[in-house]
Amino acid sequence: MAADEPRLRVAVLGAGLIGIDLVDKIRRSAKLNLALVAGRDRDSLGLRRAADMGHTTTAGGIRAVADAGPFDVVFDATNADSHAEHWAALRPTGTTLIDLTPTGLGTVMVPGVNSHRPVVHRHLNLVSCGGQASIPVLHAISKRCTPTYIEVVSTGASASAGRATRLNLDQYIATTSAAIRAFTGTRDVKVMVNLSPARPAPPFRVAMTVLADGIRPAPVRTSIAAAARAVRAYTPGFQVTSLAVDPGRISVVAQVTASGGRLPRHAGSIDIINAAAVLLAEQSAAASR
Question: Is 145 a catalytic residue?
Fold first, then answer.
């Protein structure tokens, strides 16, 4: 974006754990201007924090966002059950809607996998935090062999899972499974989620198991390393902490620790999906102009 080009006008819909971290990340972006933070509870901690940071807030939810628009981008950080209504309200306005809920609606986007293509779609879906952490690695593996079975187990701290996340676990599993199938061409996929109450809170981890024939260890390791570097370009706390490549089986563990902003280090699940959302906002809205 040129120095004299105005920043994109954006809004955050949802003032929970994900929404308030989005506020922090957008504030650090040189390309985005946060014009509104919308929730439904005027006394929520998220709306109070956003107001304390000097942002315009509203408890009017999606109707207030639609009335205050049009925006270049709206981030939906609410819940899967409400997202279709939000898209219906914003679609006529020309806004690009980035969905951080696990609805499976819209065009699925994973930075480092398919975000390099010119993005002109106005309804983007980010799968889930587990999808954002696992799909770059699994996609890289699928380019080196043909998986017959993929299993993904995401483990996050209970403290980093808000009410909407807990209510949407079934959608999380279904949407993440479908996205993994689409990006790897593997039909047999199993996704599981664990919320750990351990103290101290554990970092966000995603354990991946891939069964495949004809595995060549060196190319697989090279591709996974390249995928990890691509993710670290926008989520510095991402790292592959364990990798075993055996005949017929690949086992990978990725860990995400939050860095910067107000997030505790264990909230890597929020960090990675929000970092992806902000990156796509900067890319997609600019491309659609």
Answer: no
